[in-house]
Amino acid sequence: MNHDGGTVRRLRRVLIAVSMLAALLAIFVIAVILYWKTYLLEPSADPFSRGPYLTRLSETEARLRWRLDDDRPVRLRAVTADGSTVEARDGTFTGLQPGTPYSWSADVGGRTRAAGTFTTAPERLSGPIDFAVIGDYGSGNDHQYAVGRELAAGRPQFILTAGDNSYIAAVPPLLDRNIFEPFRDAMRGAPIWATMGEHDMVWRDGQAITDALELPGEAGRYTVRYGPVQVVLLGLEADASAIPFAREALSEPGPEVRFVVVHRPVRTGNPILPVLREAGVAAVFAGHLHRYEREVLDGVLQFTVGTSGQGAGNEDFTLATPGAESSLLDYGLLRVQVTPEGASYVFVDERGRVLDRDTRGLSGREP
């Protein structure tokens, strides 16, 4: 009897111990689940399938566009360094102060789901204005992403493209892969003003790019202003048909510095060169050739920046232009800074290395 009673007591103690252990394990599991739910869960998926991204920026206005996976409302708010706040209506901020940095945020469902910064255009050229130039980039490959990171790091106030914005063709289903995802960070702080290359014109003469970026012209031919800076975009080619448009645009009073963008580089003897020279154009930006080049044509400074993602050329087939002052086969972008004293141009490769630089007066001549 004593032996059996001892066995029962031992079994009882074992059962009590097991029960206590099970209770402790249950408490531990519940605690882990609560901790996981409270602190360790990943954030919910990004509601934006595109953007938000800037499409317009002037002295007093800024416009953002986006695409959501559903129809939830988006609330945009912009704040200055001194705490002044303005809210957007239908994606557009109005009544902004010229030459002022703003931080913006996009609220979806009561939480900030995207944010960025922009700087409104100044009324006069009293301080530096920074922008970037890219071309022949829309491939969605690692090189384009690397260029995109350098693009965002430079914090340009606007971005110019010299065409071929999407390969093999600029059709709507490819634009997220080829433009909006690689350049997402940069486009949160700077609008892209693009001209059209051959690949962009395949589908409805570039309408996909025009619609997505809310460009004001057709086939990449239009003019924009960022305060004292005028940019005249001539589209695929600066041929004879572009001369009347260029002459009229460049006669517009007010800009303190003027630039021209075209896809195919201008060549010596082109009849548009005297028009650009007489208008005091600071520089022409081109693409098409998968090289970076700097050259002066009949007194007009030209940069070819066809190296921003699709693929640098090679020495056998992508030949250097005779007379070019600099010609490189490196992925990269051109950073431009305009001041009252002149304009500086810096070609940066995908690794952030400066490979070429030049400084000129605001009319494109030596300072």
How would you characterize this protein structure?
The chain has 367 residues and is α+β, with helices and mostly antiparallel strands. Helices cover 22% and strands 32% of the residues. The chain is built from seven helices and 20 strands. The strands form four sheets. The protein has a seven-stranded mixed sheet with strand order 11-12-13-14-16-15-17. The N and C termini lie far apart (112 Å). The model has no long low-confidence stretch (mean pLDDT 93).
Give the beta-strand count. 20
Major beta-sheet overview: 7 strands, mixed
Count of DSSP-assigned helices: 7
How does the helix and strand content classify structurally? alpha+beta
Q: In which range does the helix fraction lie?
A: 10-25%
User: How much is the radius of gyration in Å?
Assistant: 28 Å
| Low-pLDDT residue intervals, each spanning 5 or more residues | none
Instruction: Identify the overall geometry.
Output: elongated
H/E series, N to C?
A: HEEEEEEEEHEHHEHEEHEHEEEEEEE
Name the beta content range.
25-35%
N→C terminal distance = 112 Å
What strand order characterises the main sheet?
11-12-13-14-16-15-17
Overall mean pLDDT stands at 93
Q: What topology does this entry show?
A:
Blueprint: H1 2-40, E1 48-57, E2 62-68, E3 74-79, E4 85-87, E5 92-93, E6 101-108, E7 111-119, E8 129-134, H2 142-153, E9 158-161, H3 175-180, H4 184-187, E10 192-194, H5 207-213, E11 221-226, E12 229-234, H6 243-250, E13 257-261, H7 273-278, E14 283-286, E15 292-297, E16 300-305, E17 326-328, E18 332-339, E19 342-349, E20 354-360
Parallel strand pairs: 8-9, 9-10, 12-13, 13-14, 14-16
Antiparallel strand pairs: 1-2, 2-5, 3-4, 3-6, 6-7, 8-18, 11-12, 15-16, 15-17, 18-19, 19-20
